[in-house]
Amino acid sequence: MISNLATDVRAFTSNVFLVDGDRTVLVDPGNEFDVVSRVEDAADGLDAVVLTHTHPDHVGNVPSVVDAFDVDVWGYNPDHDLVDHPIDADGTIRLGDNDYRALYTPGHKDDHLCFLRSDGAVVFAGDLVFANGGFGRTDLEEGDREVLVDSIERLLEATDESLRALHAGHGPSVERDARGHIELALRGARNR
């Protein structure tokens, strides 16, 4: 089961996805709100934190989550202070009851990953793409429009019509024509 613990939060934060199951994982713990109590209300515990990338709005709550649940943090860059274990590009990581393939997708930030479920039905897109054709900023440090376009192409090539749900770092999740939203983002990123 996947739920967004930041749905009604009014703060500088990302979406925060709790993936419950065999390995209960928090994808991006967010920032500037009490995510610990929300995890405690929604799950019997937490096994790990997984990061799409390390911008402050996605990782500000990492220390409080690590302290409360004594969990390790997984991310692309093992040299980052908050990351305990590296996730290799095209490596596999368990979220809930399913294995997910890590797609290296820089352009918004150099350590950005998307996570595609092994059956292709679900993707955690971080800040690469959003609902309705939105895509990640490239005006921040480490941002690069051409690299972002390449990453969106990589995500599009990795998916097919079996993609049912796209969970983005901001805004609503997409559960109808999720791949179409990636195609829109690619067109928009190429044309701006």
How would you explain this protein's 3D organization?
There is one protein chain. With 192 residues, this protein is an alpha/beta fold. It has a single domain, classed as Metallo-beta-lactamase, Chain A (4-Layer Sandwich). The protein is built from five helices and eleven strands. It has a six-stranded mixed beta sheet with strand order 1-2-3-4-5-6, covered by helices on one side. Strands 7-8-9-10-11 form a five-stranded mixed beta sheet. Helix 4 links the parallel strand 10 and strand 11. Helix 4 runs antiparallel to helix 5. The protein is globular, with a radius of gyration of 15 Å. The N and C termini lie far apart (36 Å).
Layout of helices and strands, plus pairs?
Elements: E1 2-4, E2 17-19, E3 25-27, H1 35-42, E4 48-50, H2 56-59, H3 62-69, E5 72-75, E6 85-86, E7 92-95, E8 98-104, E9 113-117, E10 122-126, H4 145-158, E11 165-168, H5 178-191
Parallel strand pairs: 3-4, 4-5, 5-6, 10-11
Antiparallel strand pairs: 1-2, 2-3, 7-8, 8-9, 9-10
User: Average pLDDT value?
Assistant: 96
What's the gyration radius in Å? 15 Å
Order of helices and strands: EEEHEHHEEEEEEHEH
Q: Strand tally, please?
A: 11
How many helices in DSSP terms? Answer: 5
How large is the share of residues in beta strands?
Answer: 15-25%
**Main β-sheet description:** 6 strands, mixed
If classified by CATH, what would the architecture be?
A: 4-Layer Sandwich
CATH superfamily: Ribonuclease Z/Hydroxyacylglutathione hydrolase-like
Determine the fraction of residues in helical runs and give it as a percent range.
Answer: 25-40%
